[in-house]
Specification:
It is a single chain. The chain has seven helices and seven strands, in the order βαβαβαβαβαβαβα. It is α/β, with parallel strands linked by helices. It has a single domain, classed as NAD(P)-binding Rossmann-like Domain (Rossmann fold, 3-Layer(aba) Sandwich). A seven-stranded parallel beta sheet has the order 3-2-1-4-5-6-7, with helices on both faces. Strand 1, helix 1 and strand 2 form a beta-alpha-beta unit. Helix 3 packs parallel to helix 4 and helix 4 packs parallel to helix 5.
Length: 272
Amino acid sequence: MSDLRGKTVVVTGASRGIGRAIALRAARDGANVVIAAKTAAPHPRLPGTIHSVAREIEEAGGRPLAVEVDVRDEGQVDRAVVAAVEHFGGIDVLVNNAGAIRLTSTADTPIRRFDLLMDVNVRATFLCTQRCLPHLRRSRNPHVLVLAPPIDLDARWLAPHLAYTISKYGMSLCVVGWAEELRPDGIAVNALWPATTIATAALLELGGAVRPEECRRPEIVADAAHWIVTREGLDVTGRFLLDEQVVSESGVNDLEAYALRPGTPLRSDLFL
């Protein structure tokens, strides 16, 4: 399968950033795209809503369905899945992109923030995948893609921001388990992570430590995601893939095209 034409792709957190880029890349194939995100009205500091992305998807050649959903809410997730299936007839690809970030030490992490990280990153990934499973099982070429880092138990990835790392590694462990659990169903499960920092709203959490010009555009992650979810069957499953590795393997030789400011040295991602 070389493209996503006619396939139904559910992308969580698709109102901006990497999720939006993945949704638009699928739309260029003529895919049905479910924009499952919380932002329905314009945010005072952040760009994009589910409705603005829906318009962009239509302009790109896709068929959008904007669904307001807080991925922490079981009822809202259930309603989003029902809406997707009723509107498009099934689900072929789930991209677990929604995420929360908080780079704080143990003492500086309020328990409510700890709970938020676990709810948005680990619990929501588990919940969304669980609820999509019956429909993915009926797809001819189902994929689950999780935006999660490779697991490295070196203390330097844990000590500075333990709560956040635990939450992201929880997503990574889901990939390890699901790749084997869902193999008999023919469902491919993979993790994707950027090799460099990406110019998204998450930079605000870094407090100016990373300048936008040191980043790549979200489109590199979107192109990598597209390559992964268009693999046939279980050719690629249980893998922890980096965006630049994937796009290079897919035949892209000039990665400078993804740089926000070509020629400027890039900042490696937090977990690499």
